[in-house]
Amino acid sequence: MKRLVAAVTLSAIALAASAHEYHAGKILIGHPWARAMPANSPTGAVYFTLDNQGNSDDKLVQVDTPRAKSAELHNHINDQGVMRMRKVEGGVTIPAGGKVVFAPGKYHVMLFSPTAELKAGERFPMKLHFEKAGDVEVQVVVEKDEPHGH
Pairing mode, if any, of strands 27-35 and 134-143? Predict the structure, then answer.
């Protein structure tokens, strides 16, 4: 029984340590992460959640990171039955009291020409620029696989 309690406790600690969140005004940014990619990969992607806990809409208008030559907001769209990736023009609106999920196959931050391999276990900075909430720097955790619950 003691081993079971110890295992559950350690699992809870590990889960809490891997989950991380940030605030920009009334926007809660949940667990920014990127999938590990080899050094020769021309692109990478970053995912997270945006939870607007305020009473008015806000908008994520831009992102940047020193870890890539450039970073853009992207989305997958259905173009006559074919899924295509497109740059999001004008930003991503986070409705008042609503949540926007950046996840594989949905919104994401596309990293072009990463400056180095994205290695599992490391972190790198990324700045999010919101129309109303302002700027916030987050730490992106590089994961081998998609985190549970995303």
Answer: parallel
